[in-house]
Amino acid sequence: xxxxxxxxxxxxxxxxxxxxxxxxxxxxxxxxxxxxxxxxxxxxxxxxxxxxxxxxxxxxxxxxxxxxxxxxxxxxxxxxxxxxxxxxxxxxxxxxxxxxxxxxxxxxxxxxxxxxxxxxxxxxxxxxxxxxxxxxxxxxxxxxxxxxxxxxxxxxxxxxxxxxx
Length: 165
Prior knowledge:
Elements: H1 18-48, H2 54-81, H3 90-96, H4 108-135, H5 139-160
Helix pairs in contact: 1-2, 1-3, 1-4, 2-5, 4-5
């Protein structure tokens, strides 16, 4: 009887080259950083919003940060499935994110505008990775990116209409 070949935990053969897996994981790491930064911003605004729109914004921000929190795990686990360590510290996120930190204590309408900008930035980060994932024939990442784009574009729209007169 032939001995079974040992499977190496570090050897990944899923039909995507090591180079492409690393590049896709790098893009997903930037998406994770943007998503975490957006999550923190939204949660902060949930806690600190004031004014006549308090109740509706407080509830809306809770729904948004809850959705964002759940997305973090999905993004990080895709990075891990590609064989790369997912970033997980504030220092790493600060280096990778495209979202500027919030300065001061914005009023409700400024919070909304900042969130529109952050949602759009996160969508751009996701969209920027689509071509690479497509060329690498990486359907799970394509699916993840498509789902995230839908959420971020729709949320940006819903926030944006609150700024209209």
